[in-house]
Amino acid sequence: MCYFNYQTSKKINKIKKNLIYFIPLFLILYLLFYAFTPQSYIKKQTVLFRIKKGYSLKTVSFKLYKSHIIYNPYLFYFIGFITGYSRYIESGTYYVSINESPASIYYKFVNGKIATAKITVVPGMNIFQIAMLLNRKHIVKEFKFIKASFNENVLLSIGIDKKSAEGYLYPDTYIFKINSTPKNILKKMYNEFELKTKNLKISYKNLIIASLIIKETSGGKDMKTVSSVFHNRLSINMPLESDPTNIYANNLNIFKNYEKHLNNIERNSGKNNKSHNRTDGRKNIAGFIKFYFSMHLKYLKTQSPYNTYLNYGLPPTPIANPNIAAITASMHPLKTNYLYFIATKKGKTIFAKSLNVQNNNINRYLK
């Protein structure tokens, strides 16, 4: 009996001894399997995941779990804890996918592989159109970007001593971080403007005229001739009567009304919520603002300094962002006697020296 107990005890001790090595090995292998295995190889799901400053590793882990990117937040947390990654996670917005392993996700977070998006600003785009593009790419909300573009303190901080950034945002292809600040975007685009125009002595008047030219022509060989029309009209104190300025006036009014609407919501939110941690009503507003970019007869009566049918001279600011060609055309117009022009349905520009010829051209090419 003693012999049997001794042999049994010896076997049990051997099993225990093996388990001491086997269990940690099993846990390590399981942890490695989890760390390097995506949640799914078949499903495709990519989300924008934002890590704000001050987020703990636990918060990050459970937010990933709620976004259905990882299936076990505790193991994700444990990996970050034992490796020390939690101390090096950088705040920002990331693209994360269900097809990525936890190790791959940690690599992004630790190395700051923040999500970016590429945009192309076409010559003639204005602040409103750029804002729409930035919003679609999740780079910044329309409202925030437009508001900053008319904020004189923000503009002064990046070197623009004007009431608007319009005209100074050079058309080009840019790569921005998702959820960038409006100031950083404006600064990058203004720096490009400074670089491209460093050898030109551009007056603000010429920059405004260049914005009219690029809007009226969309580029091309007629820019210097169109420039001559604007210069000729200005020289005889004749209204410019440029449709794009009236469209700009309408969109500026849309933005101002939208801003008032947000301010009213914010004030009402403050009145209805007496707690210290009140919810900002602006957060409930959608990012898209409905702008219009075609001309309507009703715009002719809009009371605005941008209405070049009712007012003489130039609008107070540029109405778009011109390229070098348009800026050069504004500075060096052709010498002509033209006072009118129209764009035909085929894209050709027809010029006229008198209203009678202009009306004939309209009847011939546009009706």
Provide key terms for this protein:
Dna Ligase, domain 1, mainly alpha, 367 residues, 6 strands, elongated, 13 helices
Structure write-up:
The structure is a single chain. The chain is mainly alpha-helical and 367 residues long. Among the domains are: 11-111, Dna Ligase, domain 1 (2-Layer Sandwich), CATH 3.30.1490; 116-196, no CATH class. The chain is built from 13 helices and 6 strands. It has a two-stranded antiparallel ribbon with strand order 1-2. Strand 5 (340-343) and strand 6 form a beta hairpin. Helix 2 (57-66) runs antiparallel to helix 3 (73-83).
- Name the overall outline: elongated
Radius of gyration equals 31 Å
CATH fold-level label of one domain: Dna Ligase, domain 1
H/E element order? HEHHEHEHHHEHHHHHEEH
CATH first level of one domain? Alpha Beta
Fourth-tier CATH superfamily name of one domain = Endolytic murein transglycosylase
For the termini, the CA-CA separation is 116 Å
The low-confidence parts are: 275-286
Question: Any chance you could write out the topology, listing elements then pairs?
Answer:
Layout: H1 2-35, E1 46-51, H2 57-66, H3 73-83, E2 92-97, H4 102-111, E3 116-120, H5 127-136, H6 142-149, H7 152-158, E4 173-177, H8 182-196, H9 204-217, H10 223-235, H11 243-272, H12 324-331, E5 340-343, E6 349-352, H13 355-365
Helix pairs in contact: 2-3, 5-6, 9-10, 9-12, 10-12
